[in-house]
Specification:
344 residues; 13 helices; 3-dehydroquinate synthase activity; DHQ_synth_AroB; zinc; two-stranded antiparallel ribbon; Rossmann fold; 10 strands; alpha/beta; six-stranded parallel sheet; Dehydroquinate_synthase; Dehydroquinate synthase-like, alpha domain
């Protein structure tokens, strides 16, 4: 399991980590946003011969074409297998940078410095790396642990409010699947004014506990996907459109739909479902979509990595704070759940 360091000062902590490691050369991967807003917070301690690679920001660029451009820069710079990569960015940079590091010359070491709330509580822990392919989210990827994950809440000050809200969805999910008391304590009014550092620590601990029991997602780890089968389908469907959804917005919608399925399949009570739905709607509002979007979204659900053959396997709630997995759900049932959401 990777080492997670909570850093009160990003620059100081990174320097301490780099001083403990030997490497031939440092490569820093940023996107166009983190190059501007986050790189200046660590720039002063970076070696003079560091290689800087910047890619365009956004999920839409998390693909093999972008990886190819990263590998080309690394190759042109003649980086050897002792090079060390620092991924400074959100989930896209962590996933794609780790994937590029794992493939280059059969693998170089890398450090993840997650800069968004979403990546700090979710993408940075658990060693899942990958890119999107043919419109399917994280379709190509590997499991590989970073050398270290450096979580510095100071980066959150660089985020627009929508990005903070997007990350909050994963925090809410952690409460729903493993910790009812935690879920109840999470605010829906003034949600942006919370002690983020303690929430991040608690969420990372929940995720770490699950991942340590099931590193390769053979069983228990699947509960971390609650809300994600339908949520990812919506996120992928609207990726290229004007009203594209941030990950957390799509997952909030997915959790309501999959909560509806949980009533039918795994015994979630109506009252608990109403409690979670109200909280999610208060924070995220409703996503509007047309009837014509439904079939393409259902088709995308069939591509989910948890499926076994043509059987759709869901992670569903038994109650708030308890989630089970490998629950078969058919296409008509998913359609019913999405139509329920549409009528809210």
């Amino acid at each position: 399991m990777e080492t997670v360091i909570f850093a009160s000062e990003a620059q100081k902590s990174l320097l301490e980590v780099l001083n403990q490691l030997t490497f031939s050369r440092l490569v820093i991967l940023t996107d166009s946003n983190t190059q501007l807003h986050c790189l200046p917070l660590i720039q002063a301690i970076l070696p003079s011969d560091a290689l800087f690679i910047t890619v365009p920001a956004g999920e839409i660029n998390k693909n093999l074409e972008t990886c190819s451009s990263i590998w080309s820069r690394m190759t042109e710079a003649a980086l050897d297998r002792k090079a060390l990569m620092v991924n400074l960015g959100g989930g896209v940079i962590g996933d794609m940078g780790g994937f590029c590091a794992s493939i280059y010359k059969r693998g170089i070491r890398f450090i993840n410095m997650p800069t968004t709330l979403l990546s700090q509580v979710d993408a940075s822990v658990g060693g899942k790396l990958g890119v999107d392919f043919q419109g399917l989210k994280n379709h190509l990827g590997v499991f590989n642990e970073p050398e270290t994950v450096l979580i510095a809440p100071e980066f959150l000050k660089t985020l627009p409010i929508q990005e903070l809200r997007s990350g909050y969805a994963e925090i809410l999910k952690h409460g729903l699947i493993q910790d009812a008391k935690y879920f109840t304590s999470l605010q829906s009014e003034n949600w942006e004014n919370q002690d983020w550092e303690s929430l991040i620590k608690h969420s990372v601990q929940i995720k770490k506990n699950v991942v340590e029991q099931d590193p390769k997602e053979q069983g228990l780890r699947k509960i971390l996907n609650f809300g994600h089968t339908i949520g990812h389908a919506f996120e992928s469907h609207f990726l290229d459109s004007a009203n594209h959804l941030l990950h957390g917005e799509a997952i909030a919608l997915g959790m309501i739909c999959e909560g509806y399925l949980s009533i039918k399949k795994t015994g979630l009570s109506q009252s608990e479902f109403q409690e979670m739905t109200q909280k999610l709607l208060d924070i995220y509002g409703k996503v509007n979509f047309n009837e014509t979007d439904l079939d393409p979204i259902l088709d995308l659900c069939l591509q989910d990595k948890k499926n076994e053959g043509s059987t759709l396997m869901f992670s569903l709630l038994e109650k708030i704070g308890s989630c089970t997995f490998n629950i078969p759900v058919n296409r008509d049932e998913i359609r019913e759940a999405i139509l329920f959401y549409q009528k809210l």
